[in-house]
Design goal:
two-stranded antiparallel ribbon, two-stranded antiparallel sheet, mainly alpha
């Protein structure tokens, strides 16, 4: 591959993965606003359940967006669907900040969730379809890196805004409180993402599916994705069977209801959310206020964690095509299980104050702080890196977008449930019980990898087939 082709391929992949930045930013920005919009001073005076709904509604929107993204991408192309996601992100950012009752906020965050779901499906599928097999893993991890950077961006912007204005409840520009500006600042990266996507070439596999084979070959040549563009086009055409358009009915199986590969992908996506990864991010400030960290410290701790998460993502990116997908998943599942179990034990050592704050004394506060954030750090270097790469490549060509859409929908349904229920679990089970339940899910993830996850490293998409491990 020539240097110019390699650079073109990298530019294309980075531009596509920018959707991941908005994905991460949109999901995590709520972290700095929860105490304000749920309170009575400048917010809506919400119950724990309503607070959970506001936080989790993005995940529900993402589930819907993911479900629709595959069919829309097959009909309209990957680029047009990514542009739609950018528009959803932009509108949601602006209007969430301008919402003056809780139902408006829920509605506009639901729209942002549609953008999250679309970006989660289309970006990894697009990168998988445009990259050569030997570089697909590393380029595919750009999505996770972008998500990690987006999470960091939301945390740092929240921290800077609080540092400038004094608190999330403070009145700022144009008479809007700071927590509203935390939402609105996402408008800028949403516009930039839309502008980048407008310059992307369409997926060669989509072009072949609609009969534009010459254009597909030209894009393959320009990106250096294959030394024989015409030969690659023939392989794509053969694998797709142009008389057949992908649809969700293709995912069905007479024996199991759904094809085994679909069940594995659904379990993969759903269970990692049920392990509570999102709650480490979304409720980080609230969590550390609960165990005694206050003010800027509670806001700043997630910033440090997100930086470490980016470093771990880079490490995972560097090794994914060397050690493979499956070893990273196994190491990550074991590590997260141990960290969740340790977190639950640490929280058991605390005592509740009359105000409901968990008082951790001595070394247990440090153990809890390290163990909880170790869950996210380990995730970033393992499951976070592999997640979208694996889902983008495990399916055969004929069912990729439909299968990826359904698996991602399962991922966000899990995210909706675990995020919405976190405040309720905190009320009734406490932090210890909540994290012990996550540890149980971690144990199931270990079993899933050992029993059912195949290795997909270096396999061409046209040759992809699923075989369960014995």
């Amino acid at each position: 591959m020539s240097t110019s082709s390699s650079n073109k391929l990298l530019q294309v992949s980075i531009a596509a993965a920018l959707g991941g930045f908005l994905f991460g930013f949109d999901v995590a920005v709520i972290n700095g606003t929860i105490g304000s919009f749920s309170g009575t001073a400048t917010g809506f005076g919400l119950s724990s359940l309503m607070t959970g709904i506001v936080v989790s509604i993005v995940s529900l929107g993402a589930a819907v967006g993911a479900l629709l993204a595959g069919g829309a991408a097959n009909r309209f192309g990957r680029i047009r669907v990514m542009i739609a996601a950018a528009i959803f992100f932009a509108i949601s950012a602006l209007m969430s900040g301008l919402s003056f009752d809780v139902w408006q906020l829920i509605g506009w965050r639901l729209l942002g969730g549609l953008g999250v779901g679309i970006a989660a499906v289309i970006a990894p599928a697009y990168i998988a379809e445009i990259a050569p097999a030997d570089k697909r893993g590393r380029l595919g991890t750009l999505q996770q890196l972008a998500i990690a950077v987006g999470i960091f961006g939301s945390f740092i912007s929240n921290f800077v805004l609080v540092k400038i204005t004094g608190s999330a409840d403070a009145v700022s520009l144009f008479g809007l409180t700071t927590w509203r500006w935390m939402f609105i600042v996402e408008l800028l990266p949403a516009i930039l993402y839309g502008l980048f996507v407008l310059r992307l070439p369409e997926s060669p596999r989509f072009l072949v599916s609609i009969g534009k084979e010459d254009e597909a070959a030209a894009i393959i040549a320009a990106t250096g994705a294959d030394k024989d563009p015409a030969g690659r086009v023939r392989e794509i055409r053969s694998s797709l069977d142009t008389d057949h358009r992908p649809r969700f009915s293709d995912l069905k199986d007479s024996k199991y209801g759904l094809r085994p590969v679909v069940w594995v992908a659904l379990a993969f996506g759903f269970l990692i959310q049920m392990a509570g990864i999102n709650n480490v991010l979304l409720y980080a400030t609230e969590l550390w206020q609960t165990v005694g960290f206050t003010g800027n410290t509670a806001v700043f701790i997630p910033v440090v964690t997100s930086i470490i998460g980016i470093v771990m993502t880079l490490i995972g990116m560097a090794v994914i095509d060397k050690v493979g997908r499956r070893p990273l998943l196994l190491w990550g599942a074991v590590g997260m299980f141990a960290a969740m179990l340790t977190s639950g034990i640490a929280f058991l050592q605390g005592t509740l104050t009359p105000e409901g704050t968990l008082n951790l004394t001595g070394p247990w506060a440090a153990v809890a702080l390290i163990a909880v954030h170790a869950v996210y750090v380990i995730f970033c270097g393992t499951w976070g890196v592999v997640l979208w790469v694996f889902l983008g490549e495990i399916f055969p060509n004929q069912i990729r977008t439909a299968g990826l859409g359904l698996a991602t929908t399962g991922n966000w349904i899990g995210g909706t449930l675990v995020t919405m229920l976190f405040p309720v679990f905190m009320e009734h089970l406490g932090l210890a019980g909540t994290y012990f339940s996550y540890a149980v899910v971690g144990a199931i993830l270990i079993w899933l990898v050992v029993r059912h996850i195949p290795e997909t490293k270096g396999v061409e998409l046209e040759d992809m087939s699923y075989q369960t491990r014995k």
